[in-house]
């Protein structure tokens, strides 16, 4: 098998894994209250009506979902988070506000996964807004799961994209991701994209 085919196979597996995790988390996030809500979510014909949880329209606490595996990505995330904070938002930035390396020292891989997952899920549920940076060949798998949790629990979700790489079928955004957003900030010029966010925040609330 060629190297290109191997890479493409791993990419497909990563996408499937992200999708599976999102489905699991959506079930976990919404399932607890589903039985109690069943009758109120049933129409006159007896069919259950499925919808996003009620979206909060107030609150300024943001969960910042983005890739954070290179220095450039972390610097970019911090730059955007700082702009949001300068406009009065309280931002949870995982690379800055998550666990310190010393707090995970000596933990097994399974223990680290459990702690990080629980912490990030808790912070998403405490937030009012989920802000998702979509740059990359495909959106970051972990951030996709975070978006699924946020959308299912009624958070206001915003997309942010300056990457020219796009999905197949001549679509720039995956419909299952783009459909979650209240608004998407999109410009292939990264500096102009940041300016557009700043201009929007002068006159509008997220």
- Evaluate the radius of gyration: 18 Å
The helix/strand series, from N terminus to C terminus, equals HHEHEHHHEHEHEH
Q: What is the quaternary state of this protein? A: single chain
**What are the segments in which pLDDT stays under 50 over at least 5 consecutive residues?**
3-10, 23-51
How far is the first residue's CA from the last residue's CA?
A: 48 Å
Enumerate how many helices there are, as a single number. Answer: 9
Instruction: Please tally the β strands and state the result.
Output: 5
Percent of residues in beta strands:
5-15%
What's the arrangement of strands in the largest beta sheet? 2-1-3-4-5
Q: Which structural class is indicated by helix and strand composition?
A: alpha/beta
Average pLDDT over all residues? 79
Which descriptor suits the 3D outline? globular
Helix content: 40-55%
Q: What's the main sheet like?
A: 5 strands, parallel
Folded structure, characterized:
There is one protein chain. With 206 residues, this protein is an alpha/beta fold. The model is unreliable at 3-10 and 23-51 (pLDDT under 50). The longest helix has 29 residues, at 3-31. The protein has 9 helices and 5 strands.
Draw up the topology in text.
Layout: H1 3-31, H2 34-37, E1 61-65, H3 71-86, E2 90-92, H4 94-97, H5 101-104, H6 109-126, E3 129-133, H7 141-152, E4 156-161, H8 175-178, E5 183-186, H9 190-203
Parallel strand pairs: 1-2, 1-3, 3-4, 4-5
Quick recap of the structure?
This protein has 206 residues and is of the alpha/beta class. Helices cover 51% and strands 11% of the residues.
């Amino acid at each position: 098998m060629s190297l290109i085919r191997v890479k493409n196979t791993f990419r497909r597996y990563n996408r499937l894994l992200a999708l599976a995790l999102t489905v699991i988390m959506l079930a976990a996030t919404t399932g607890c209250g589903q039985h109690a809500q069943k009758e109120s979510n049933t129409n006159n014909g007896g069919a259950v009506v499925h919808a996003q949880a009620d979206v909060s329209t107030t609150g300024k606490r943001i969960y910042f979902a983005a890739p954070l595996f290179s220095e450039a990505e972390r610097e970019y995330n911090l730059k955007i988070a700082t702009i949001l904070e300068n406009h009065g938002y309280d931002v949870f930035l995982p690379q800055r506000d998550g666990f310190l390396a010393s707090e995970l020292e000596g933990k097994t891989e399974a223990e680290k996964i459990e702690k990080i997952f629980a912490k990030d899920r808790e912070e998403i549920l405490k937030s009012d807004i989920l802000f998702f940076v979509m740059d990359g060949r495909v959106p970051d798998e972990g951030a996709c799961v975070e978006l699924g949790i946020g959308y299912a629990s009624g958070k206001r979700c915003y997309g942010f994209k300056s990457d020219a790489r796009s999905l197949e079928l001549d679509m720039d955004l995956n419909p299952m991701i783009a459909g979650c957003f209240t608004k998407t900030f999109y410009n292939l010029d990264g500096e102009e994209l940041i300016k557009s966010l700043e201009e929007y925040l002068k006159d509008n609330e997220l």
